[in-house]
Automatic annotation (TrEMBL):
Gene Ontology BP term (one): translation
Keywords of the record: Ribonucleoprotein, Ribosomal protein, RNA-binding, rRNA-binding
Gene it is expressed from: rplW
GO MF terms, alphabetically ordered: rRNA binding; structural constituent of ribosome
Function: One of the early assembly proteins it binds 23S rRNA. One of the proteins that surrounds the polypeptide exit tunnel on the outside of the ribosome. Forms the main docking site for trigger factor binding to the ribosome.
UniProt-recorded name of the protein: Large ribosomal subunit protein uL23
Length: 97
């Protein structure tokens, strides 16, 4: 049973650190499904953006505790993937920003 690539890759993350890593090391950041593994993430990125992925690194991030007046709540935990592309590869979605 294969998963839909769009359900694995939730959204692209655009930050100052991500922009620097994209320019220096050709690395892109994505929020991905928590149950996705590196192989599924690699295949999904290659299918969606038509690029060749060299390396995938993942990390589990804990949701922040947020307050609304006297009530405290918590954001959901999430998973982040740092994808390194080949030397001549790039994702056009990020280049527009």
């Amino acid at each position: 049973m294969t998963k839909d690539p769009r359900s694995i890759v939730r959204k692209a993350l655009i930050t100052e650190k991500g922009t620097t890593l994209r320019e220096l090391r050709n690395q892109y950041h994505f929020e991905v499904a928590r149950d996705a593994n590196k192989i599924e993430i690699k295949r999904a990125i290659e299918a969606i953006f038509s690029v060749k992925v060299e390396l995938v690194r993942t990390m589990q991030l804990h949701g922040k505790v947020r307050r609304q007046g006297r009530f405290a709540g918590r954001r959901n935990d999430w998973k982040k993937a740092v994808v390194t592309l080949g030397p001549d590869q790039k994702i056009d979605l990020f280049e527009q920003i």
